[in-house]
Amino acid sequence: MIKVKTFSTPIKALQTARELTQLDEEVNRFIAGNKVTKVVSVSDTTTTDENGATIGLLRVVAYEA
Question: What range defines the domain where residue 41 resides?
């Protein structure tokens, strides 16, 4: 069975590298903690404010359970 998990993080100016590292760590903890053996897909997309500025990131992981 394929399952999907969504992760999110805010993006702040001059802190993006740290936020992406934290997001990677969160996803890796989820994969290890749930004993995921096969990741089918990983996709990132940004969220924006009313002016089009990037304010967040969504990461969707599809995996086999």
Answer: 2-64
Residues comprising the chain, all counted: 65
Tokens of 34: 């749930």
Q: What is the pTM of this model?
A: 0.87
- Cβ-proximal residues to 31 (8 Å cutoff; 6+ apart), any chain: 39, 61, 63
Token code pair at residue 19: 């936020």
Helices (H) and strands (E) in the chain, counts: 1, 3
Domains in the chain, number: 1
Q: What is the pLDDT along the chain (65 residues), one digit of tens a residue?
A: 999 999 999 998 888 899 999 999 999 999 999 999 999 999 999 999 999 999 999 999 999 98
